[in-house]
Structure formats: C-alpha cells, structure tokens
Hints:
The protein is an alpha+beta fold. It has helices at 3-15, 45-57, 73-76, 106-122, 125-133, 172-191, 228-244, 246-249, and strands at residues 21-28, 31-37, 65-70, 81-87, 94-100, 147-154, 159-161, 198-202, 207-212, 216-222, 255-256. It has eight helices and eleven strands. The strands form two sheets. The protein has a six-stranded mixed beta sheet with strand order 3-4-5-1-2-11, covered by helices on one side. A five-stranded antiparallel beta sheet has the order 7-6-10-9-8, with helices on both faces.
Amino acid sequence: MPQSLRNEVTAILLSNRCPELVFAIVIYERQIISIVRPKQYAITPQDLHLLMNYVQTGSTRGHGEKWAPCCLPDFNDGGYLYIHDSYISDTVNVSLVLITNEREQHITMIECKQSIVDQMVTQKTMDKLEAVLASPFVSSDTKIPHLNHFIYKSRSSQQLVSPEYTVPYNSDEDRKLLYAKYCHVYDKLHHSDQKMSIYYDIGARESVVGYLMSNSEIYCTFSPFVTRPVALNNIDKLLKWIRREENRFFILGSGVY
C-alpha cells in the first residue's frame, strides 16, 4: 500500500478520535493498514494476532457490527477492553476496530466509527483503499526470475511481508504443503544443533531457501531447477527490492496522540 494512502487513513483516525478511545485499527484480511494509539501505550504483535483472529472468525465478517469484551494479555492480563468491530467496505473485507476501556461506551464507539467512515467516503479514501486492495501484491511484481513465493520478516518491527499465492499454489492443499516446507526450513535454521544462517531444501516441486540475517529473515521458494548460486543471487536482489519498498509494506510508525 502506498505510504501516502496509509498516512491518509491514519490522519482520518486521529482527526475523529474521541476521548474514550484507546486504540483504533484498520485491518484488511490479516493485514494491518493503520493503527492509532496513545503515546503511553503500545500494542504488541501477540495482542494484534489475537485481535485479528477475533475479527476473522467473528460473526460480523463481511457485514454488521459487534460489541464485545476482549482480554489483550500483553496490554493488561487482569482486565478487559471493549471492542467495536465493523466492516466498512461493501467490496473488500476492510474492518475498523475501535477499542475502549469503558464498558458503557458502545454508542460512543458507533458514533466514532460513523464519523471515520463518513470522512473516508467524503475524501475518497475508501475508493482508494478498495482500488489498492483489489489488486494484491504477487511475487511477479518483484521481477525476480524463478521466484514463486516468499516470506520476509523484519525482526526490528516484528512485521511480515508475503505475496499472494499464485501458480503453482492455487489450491489449499498446495498451500498447506508449501507452508509445511517453510516450517521445515524454519525449524532447521532455528532449532538445529548445527548453527547455520542459510538452509537450502531441494524438492521435486520447488526449492526452498531460508536465510537468517541480524535484523531479518527470509524464506524463498524457487523452481526446483534453480541452482543454489542463482537462488542466493536472486535472494540478494529480492532483499534490495524489499528495502526499497519497505514504506509500502511495513507500518514504520503508528499514529500517536
């Protein structure tokens, strides 16, 4: 997503923030578009993961609204926050999650949500979001030869980037098999008695390479006919491409008030 669009969404969240609001988060599928938070509080990746599971499995998926208590243990494992969760687009699964620590603020959160949506529509921000999200990022966008898929993790920001699955991973079964291969390579790099920074796994369908660096790690899937030197050279090109595009892929600073 263009950084300018992400900043536009964040500015709208900030300008429509009500005093009772603690966190405001815009989510697409399992991707964070924007977060607004008070400067004295942060929200950890573990708590965000819980929130995304809540949104993805909730009864509001695709329509409606929901108000419910939720415990975010890293934020406060001894109490509840209260979440207003709603889908705000008719064409893509964009949800707006508003979080307060006050149980009686359901109506306030509804009003806050409506003011955010109204401004997004008025400024055409919603149209821009729907256009960007309708054209997901795929591995061919990198222009890296023989690259089928990859997962890149920034350790410093605790964020991941990965393209949409395309050929030859069109079916759920194909994706599960690839995920199992990624898990195997991850395990070899992180839990092996022999310390290593690169692990190269050659299979009948693909070659998967894992590469650990000081502040990041990457797992790449190539054609099974790609040689190790070519794969490593392509990974180097891919890392440079990701670094050039990091403002597009990562939230490098949340909206703080």
